[in-house]
C-alpha cells in the first residue's frame, strides 16, 4: 500500500519506470509512451483528487474526478455513435483515458503550484 501511495504522490515516477521498462522490452518509443501514459493515469487520478481535497478542504475530489470521466465517456460515446453509427467501447475508453492523462497532468501541476503558493502565504 505504501508503494501505491508513494507513486500517487509522485506520479511522474511510474511514468518514467513504465517508459523505460517498455522501451527496453519493445524498443519502440511510441508504445512505451502510450503504456506509460496508461499506467500513470491511475496514479494521477488519485493524486489530483487528493490535491483537490487538500486545496479546497473538501472530500469531493475523487467523486468529481469520476464524474468528469463519466461525462467524457458519454460525450465520446455519443460522438462515436453520431459519426459511425456504433460505439467501439475499447476505443472510447482508451480515448477518454488518454484525455484524462492530459487533464490530470495539467491538474496535478496546477494544484501543486496553487497548494505551494497557499502554504507559503499561510507561513507569512
Automatic annotation (TrEMBL):
Domain of life: Bacteria
Keywords: Membrane, Transmembrane, Transmembrane helix
rRNA processing is among the record's keywords: no
Residue ranges crossing the lipid bilayer per the database entry: 6-25, 37-54, 60-79, 100-121
InterPro entries: DUF3397
Pfam family, one: DUF3397
Designated name of the protein: DUF3397 domain-containing protein
Organism: Paenibacillus tundrae
Amino acid at each position: 500500500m505504501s508503494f501505491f501511495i508513494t507513486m500517487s504522490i509522485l506520479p511522474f515516477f511510474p511514468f518514467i519506470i513504465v517508459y523505460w521498462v517498455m522501451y527496453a522490452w519493445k524498443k519502440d518509443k511510441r508504445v512505451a509512451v502510450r503504456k506509460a501514459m496508461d499506467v500513470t493515469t491511475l496514479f494521477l487520478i488519485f493524486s489530483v483528487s487528493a490535491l483537490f481535497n487538500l486545496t479546497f478542504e473538501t472530500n469531493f475530489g475523487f467523486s468529481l474526478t469520476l464524474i468528469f470521466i463519466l461525462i467524457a465517456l458519454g460525450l465520446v460515446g455519443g460522438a462515436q455513435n453520431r459519426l459511425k453509427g456504433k460505439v467501439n467501447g475499447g476505443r472510447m475508453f482508451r480515448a477518454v483515458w488518454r484525455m484524462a492523462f492530459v487533464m490530470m497532468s495539467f491538474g496535478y501541476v496546477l494544484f501543486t503550484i496553487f497548494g505551494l503558493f497557499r502554504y507559503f502565504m499561510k507561513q507569512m
